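User: Here's a chain of 377 residues. Predict its fold as tokens.
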Amino acid sequence: MDESPQIKMKEGEKSSLLDSNDTKSYELSSSAVDLLPLNSVQEKKVPWWAWMGLALSLVAVSSAATVFRVIDDVPPLMRSTWRLELTAVFQFPCFLYQLHHADTQTRNVFKQSLLIELFSACMLGLHFGAWVWSIDHTSLVHSLLWVSASPIVIIVGLFLLCKRVSTMEVVGTLMGFGGGALMCIDLTNVSSTVTFAGDAVAFVGAIAMVGYLYSGRLLREDRRMPLFLYAFPVTFLSAVFSAVLAVWLEDGNFGGTGVRSVFGWHASQYFVWVLYLAAVPGMLGHTVINFIIRYISPLVVTVTLVMEPLVGSFLAWLVGVDGIPHMWTWIGAPIMFVGTLLTTIASDKNKPDAKAGSELSSLTSDSVAVTDQESGL
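Assistant: Prediction complete.
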């Protein structure tokens, strides 16, 4: 008899509490919506300056190959070293700022991740070294297309690991390699600058990029490491790695200001070019991309950046540092480009399933993260 009023009272209290919680939940949801990007709540027109920024960033990033070709009297590994060195100089103040404001947990993560950063640095140094070497030993079209083939490399890796891939990803990968094979027929043309070694080494650069992407994703997303606490150590260590290779393989040295000096970019005839490489394709180009990704779909940005080989090749021809491609490159290059594009789009559509299957598989759909992790490499 005495329990009934208590039960009713408790039920009333429960109802009141539920009403109160519902109200708070609604208020919280409303506040959360206000904090979300507008394009996640409703369709928002992309501002014109965001499109302009994306276009300018694409041109800036694509111009790096042309500048590397302009200063081709410097050995390739040394050119790679110079760019990484000056990029690290730009990143250092940002690194100090983030390290100063990092909490204890972030500092511990930073200390525990040094081996992964070392691996990432070696992969980045190998990527740049292989790419710049290939610029000297094949056409820029071939070099840029093969070094940008990391999306199809990832799909091959998934296949070898017996992970599930979509039909569209398989089609894109086959088109990529098929187009590449057609381009290689130009090897038989005696007037062509295309070489098997140049194409193969550029592809090694694409493989190295996958290792760099994977380690970067692990640190930046899984361990939530601040951008420059990751970017500066990796860039600095990759510069050291590249410098060691240059001294060993190109008879380089640590003194003077010549083309074989690790610090030769101080010389007046090279300083402006190396400064441009670090500041424009690097810090400026990628920083703008990181900013406009708030307004433009990441997939659109990724697909736009896939056009880098086309834009870079056109700029090189315009400046006069590369010739017009031969017939089989005209046939194979569009096929390889479309294959890489299809693989990127398919991986984005397959993203939820990919995450469930493998961390590696999500790299193709998040290839725009390269820009975030490099922050101007």
